[in-house]
Amino acid sequence: MAGPGSYRPLLRELRNAASPSWWVQPPGGPRKLWGVLTMLLHNAWLRAREACARRLGRQPQVVCPICGFAGQAFLTGLRSNWRLRYGRECPQCHSRERHRFLWLLLRDRYKIEDWLGFLVHFAPRAGERRAILAGTRAWYLSADLDPTGMDVCLDVTSLPFRSGSVSYVICSHVLEHVTDDRAALAELRRVLAPDGSAFISAPLFGESTREYGRADGQDHEHVRRYGRDLQYLLEQYFGVTVHEVSTEYDAQTVQRYRLMPGEVIYCCRP
After folding, report:
1. Single pTM value for the model
2. Would you state the pLDDT for residue 81?
3. Residue 9 and residue 98: Cα distance in Å, rounded?
4. Could you tell me the residue ranges of all domains in the chain?
5. Is cis: bond before 65, omega within 30 of 0?
6. Class of the CATH-defined domain 97-269
7. Are 80 and 218 in contact (CB under 8 A)?
8. What are residue 219's phi and psi, to 5 degrees?
9. I need a surface site. Which of 5, 9, 62, 99 has the fewest CB within 10 A?
10. Closest CA to 247 of 265, 235, 230
11. How far, in Å, CA of 17 to CA of 30, rounded?
């Protein structure tokens, strides 16, 4: 079961509700508060149901491949419009659909346990970080502009590594926050070893990328919404292999791990 830390984001939102500025930020404060309260109540019900199911000895319906949690359901999260998103977050390691897909792909198809060399992981979650540290022999470095919980503070558009010195890069849901994504891709291409691999993903919406021009507070501080044409941008810097949940796994596996059928990860090589 999740520890006290899993409630911190929710408590932070409730605490923010006491601030007048919070109520005028779009979308409207009441919708935010209603979304957070509804999620709290729904997750409390899910936790109670989980406890009852364990006492009754019921078989688990979902499994987290990252931490091994097995239970009746994952917790409910919130969409950018503050509506509920069911079955999203593991109550134990707090992984979401994209984290579980990434780990399955690295573990099963790319044999992360056999990796050697230098691995740079941008903005990992704590559960991801623990799993990869335990699952690979590569020298692992976590990095982000926000150094909290990371090994180092790094700007993906200006990396301090020698050219060709990084064996593996994991850059999941990062580029949509970067103002100059082309500079970031050029840097990743520069530091990646000739036989290296970069695993890149971003939330995709439709076919074409939409640039905001600045960080959008209504869309998780993203500076753009990528479309499927992200693949063509990546192909300007790398050779690209596309991995999509719906083509990698059958419906039973998708349901078991609660993956998103449209989620895509690009394996990029020089």
Report:
1. 0.84
2. 66
3. 19
4. 4-89, 97-269
5. no
6. alpha beta
7. yes
8. -130, 55
9. 5
10. 265
11. 9
